[in-house]
Design a protein that fits this description.
Shape: elongated
Strand content: 15-25%
Strand order of the largest sheet: 1-2-3
Distance between the termini: 55 Å
Order of helices and strands: HEEEHHHEE
Number of strands: 5
Structural class: alpha+beta
Radius of gyration: 24 Å
Number of helices: 4
Largest sheet: 3 strands, antiparallel
């Protein structure tokens, strides 16, 4: 028993090696914040939450690739929620109903579990599309600028990353 506990602790320790307590926020770029309740984007000191604000943000850029990734995010999110809900309802129905045969009950429960896994996969696929959109936006719209600045008696080179 002690070996199993140690092995479980060791596996958890190895799997959590790359976890961080906080997300890195770069104030000069667009940042995608994955929150438990609602995903957010932080850009130019403004917090964008939800699909309506994301749509305004990406449509204002006029970039077709960003808009395509936004639509992929929305489609995956909606289909994931519908499939997950259908799977949950199937499991509840099969568990509560005693009038169906045992084989059918287990088939519906298994199908419901599969739908829940598939729905979760679609939700993660939607988050990945949004992450790709933010990364693409940062690549295209955050360029390094070099300028020459003169103030009073001083002159200097200004580099913005």
């Amino acid at each position: 028993m002690k070996v199993c506990k140690f092995l479980l602790f060791f596996i958890l320790l190895i799997s959590s090696k790359n976890l961080m307590a906080q997300e890195r926020v770069d104030h000069q770029k667009m940042n995608y914040l994955i929150n438990p309740k609602q995903n957010s984007i932080l850009y130019n000191d403004t917090l964008y939450k939800g699909s309506n604000q994301f749509r305004v943000l990406f449509l204002s850029s006029g970039d077709k690739d960003l808009i395509k990734l936004y639509h992929q995010h929305q489609a995956a999110k909606i289909s994931g929620n519908i499939i997950f809900t259908a799977g949950t309802l199937g499991i509840i129905f099969a568990s509560a109903n005693n009038n169906i045969s045992s084989g059918t009950k287990w088939g519906v429960i298994g199908g419901g579990a599969f739908c829940m896994i598939l729905g979760t996969f679609n939700l993660l696929k939607g988050q990945m599309a949004m992450y790709k959109a933010v990364t693409l936006f940062n690549k295209k719209h955050n360029k390094t600028t070099v300028g020459f600045d003169v103030t009073g008696n001083n002159a200097g080179l200004v580099v913005n990353f």
